[in-house]
Every structure is written in C-alpha cells, then in structure tokens.
C-alpha cells in the first residue's frame, strides 16, 4: 500500500473514531426525548428548581449593584451564570418532554418524602427569600448588603440542595440525576465559601 493511501486510511479511521465518540457524548448528554417522556419526579423537579434558580439569579443581580467588593461580585457572577444556564436547561427539557412549565400541584409534591412548607410572602419553597427580605437587600449597600446576601444565599442553597438530593436519588432519567447531583456538589462548595466570606464580615 502506498504511503499516501495508508495516510488516507489512517485519517479516515481516526475520523470515524472521533465521530463515534462525539455521537456517544451527545447521546449521554441530551435529555430524554418526547417519545420517552420524563416521569413526575423529573418534570416536578425541573419546574420547581427553575423557579428556585430564578430567585438566586435575581438576588445575585441585586448584590452586584449594591457592593463594589470583588469577591462578592465574583460569587454573584458565578451564581448568575451557573443557575441561569441550569434554569435554561431545565425549561428546555420540559419543552422536549412536552411538559408544562407551571403546574397546579403543590411545590415539591414530586419528592419521595414529606417536605411540608407553607408558602408565604413570595417564598414558595424552602430556602427562598421572602419579598420583604428582597426589599431589605435592595435597601442596603456595602458590607451590610454583602452580609444580607451571603446569609440569604446560604439558606437558599440549603433549600435547593434538599430538593436536588431528592431528584438525584429518585429521578427517572440519568440526565436529571446527573444534573441534580452536580447541583448538590456545586452548592455545597459555595456554602462553604460563603461561610468563610461571612466570617470575615461579621468578626
């Protein structure tokens, strides 16, 4: 076999291997399709966590304009990007599953254990700030705003983690279980970071 023909053969084989790897990656990462709809856990989690994430993004935009501290602004920027992207993914999955983005069912009714919570003053699920707390955050600036934001976001993450743990444990699709576990890991790390940041601001 000539060297040119051998080279074309090797390149062709490498291309086939690369395309196969890409196809496998896409298969693993794409959500369940409409002909294999998600169950009540996946759809309930997607709806509730999209709402929960939206408030985290809102709080992070508020603090971005209420402080000049680089560390707090960097954290807020990370939360905005991470949770906005995850929210878009969750809503996109609901579209793919032909599921509505809102439901008359009580929040967290999809979870595998009782998690009673009485919505009040705009706080629809555990960890979510009330409208009164958000208005207070908007009225603060500097270190006071930073402490308020870090405190509210820590509680917000704890509530989100409990929901994500439920989906990681009971989700019907691998994609949902994987995303939920990633949320647990990421938000636990941010809680530890925020604890250190709070300590520096209240000591």
The secondary-structure element order is HHHHHH
For the largest beta-sheet, the strand count, sense and barrel status come to: none
Shape: elongated
Number of strands: 0
In helices, the fraction of residues equals over 70%
Q: Helix- and strand-based class? A: mainly alpha
- Please indicate the percent range of residues in DSSP E strands (runs of 2 or more): under 5%
Mean pLDDT: 86
Helical segment count:
6
Q: Could you tell me the radius of gyration in angstroms?
A: 21 Å
Low-confidence runs = 2-36
Distance between the termini: 76 Å
SSE topology:
Elements: H1 3-29, H2 40-64, H3 70-96, H4 131-139, H5 142-170, H6 174-202
Helix pairs in contact: 2-3, 2-5, 4-5, 5-6
Description of the structure:
With 203 residues, the chain is mainly α. The protein is built from 6 helices and no strands. The longest helix has 29 residues, at 142-170.
List the keywords.
mainly alpha, 0% strand
